[in-house]
Amino acid sequence: MTEYRLLPLLPLDDDVVLPGMVVPLDAGDPEIRAAVESAQAKTPALPGIRSVSTAEVLIVPRVSGEYAELGTVATIERIGRMPGGRTAVLLRGGHRARVGDAGEGPGTAKWVRAERVSEITDERSATLAAEYKSEVVARLRQLGGGQMIEAIEQVEDPSSIADLAGNAPYLTVDQKLELLRLTDVSTRLERALAWNREHRAEEEVTDTINRDVAEGMEKQQKEFLLRRQLEAIRKELGELDGGTTGDDYRSRVEAAGLPEHVYRAAMSEVDKLERASEQSPESGWIKTWLDTVLGLPWQTRTTDVHDIAGARAVLDADHAGLDDVKERIIEYLAVRARRAERNAGDIREPDTTAPTPVGQSDRNSDTVPSSVDQRGRRSGAVLALVGPPGVGKTSLGESVAKAMGRKFVRVALGGVRDEAEIRGHRRTYVGALPGRVVRAIAEAGSMNPVVLLDEVDKVGADYRGDPTAALLEVLDPEQNHTFRDHYLEVELDLSDVVFLATANALETIPEPLLDRMELVTLDGYTEQEKVVIGRDHLLPRELERAGMEPSDVAFTDAALSRIAAEYTREAGVRNANRTIAKVLRKIATRVALGEATLPVTVDAGDLETYLGRPRHLPESSLPASTRRTAIPGVATGLAVTGAGGDVLYIEASLADPESGGSGLTLTGQLGDVMKESAQIALSYLRSHGAELELPVGDLKDRAIHLHVPAGAVPKDGPSAGITMTTALASLLSGRVVRTDVAMTGEVSLTGRVLPIGGVKQKLLAAHRAGLRTVIIPARNEPDLDDVPAEILAELDVHPVAEVHEVIDLALTPARVVQAA
Fold it and tell me: Does 647 appear as a known binding residue?
């Protein structure tokens, strides 16, 4: 007969009590209180049911409202109050029991029949129990649970040892319920061992992670504290010596609105600064770099003015003459305005609702500047203003900036021999600085200024590199949008900068650099233009510098014309400016000594009083006997130098037959091209002497000498051929060259007159020298369109194709020579 026990049912939600466990339960729960009160009531003896001598209950797990089929018979050990005042009951689990049919008993609890469940053990149970017990004890030793170790070591029953897993907090309700249902002790121990080892493995991983996290947190906290202390120390030091701390630079960088790539580089340097010692040289280098980056106008741009009529008015007001140059500049501005108008229609409105990330450049979220083309880059020609000194190249750059409404900055390149002057120095060098281009942008205070690269033809090269090679990227619209300065080491967009270049001569500019620029030639001013410039520009400026009012001194046009013609023979007006300043100084001195009173009017006849006699009288104004061309063998040529057009005299002499010697001697520092021209001229005369009626038969026995004054000035160029031929023809024929005739052109062995360059500059030089007849190659006749009309009206220009035409025009008739 199966023995049943009638016990009050104590349901336990979402938890399991295994045999051997001691658990406190809240007696305030109605079901728990009812079960405890019912168990404490006397249970009557019924047939087949043993009466209970101690208060016991059957604890049955209830999961999701369903009762388990097995429970634990538990003894009520104690009933008392918790520290918070609530009533609690302490229960000790006894053995497993199967939940049977309902019964009747005292109290309000539900009574059920509890059938004791027998357990199965085998020879493995003891081994598994010892293994599990050792693992639990070892874990408790790590945790320092001394009393619990003693209690566990006293447990010998394998089933009780297996039920110890019920105290493990890492087991889930389902796992505990599985242990309760397993009556096979060995299986129960295997499950407990497996779960314990899984938990130990997870615990080790968690410990490792927690340890790493703790170490990281400790490191971060330590670093935070040290940084705070370091900031406090630096702040105190900064207040003492007026320095700037890394925290100040961090706030400045965050508030500067730098482009994203520049912001990242700057914050990286700020981190280095905060870690560096104040006594370290690196600290000073980093601060200098940050000051340089923060000093650049990353978000500053001027708005272009596209008023072409206004631009023309600005150029006309600032410069007299130079109509072709101003026309080219106006074309340049008109194309930029047209392109900006086209691109403005292609650009969509920006999304103003999207936030801009910290440090992100404002232009990334704004409309693209007006000069950006469809590829995202700015485009446009780089104008190179080429001309002699004093013609106004630099002032033209200022006028372009004024017409465009942009900032203007000048970069002097004369004598620069170090590539680092353009690209900047590496920061590892002492005294490193950014290149001149970056410094120019910082000086302008705008990312789209007009930058004038002055004297680009005087850039040199040595062992430190070639600056012109660095200028290739600066002036190339396809590359300069990612220009990288060696000092900054961040990309700088130069594509919206308008670059202008100035040069006196093109020969010294490398061909690759010249290919990136469009040449605009300034040939010089006419005498009438110099009068206008002197009256409207030079005189007012020099009066202000001399401390005089505009009404104190006046120059007549005749005086200004004489200064340009006889005192300052030049292509530009720089010497004219100095001459006017000299006259004003003389007048100021006389007024101070009481020898004159203001106002003063300076006429042409008064100039000798202030300046002395003229230094540049035209040949035509000299007596006939003192002119250079008064004797045979002297011809007047025209050349182009770094100072503009100039008059060049070529002299020829023929040695006496009895003196011995032969061949051609050349003096005057002539270049290879001019030497070849002299050889060609002599060869032509030898082969065509009979046609020209020249006595050339004895040339092989006589020495010929060609000299080009001044002997201390180097000369070269392909335009002196017909002048040398004319000088030799004059020498051989005994006919002098006409005083008022100048010529330019190259000669071939067949007697052809070949074209040359610089026609406008040469005609202006002839006009300044008082020469009224000019011989040029016939193929250069289209170049006369560039010469001012007033100059052509005063010159008699003869385009020729053959050398005999030159000789007929240049030499005086034979009968005139015979009469002399």
Answer: no
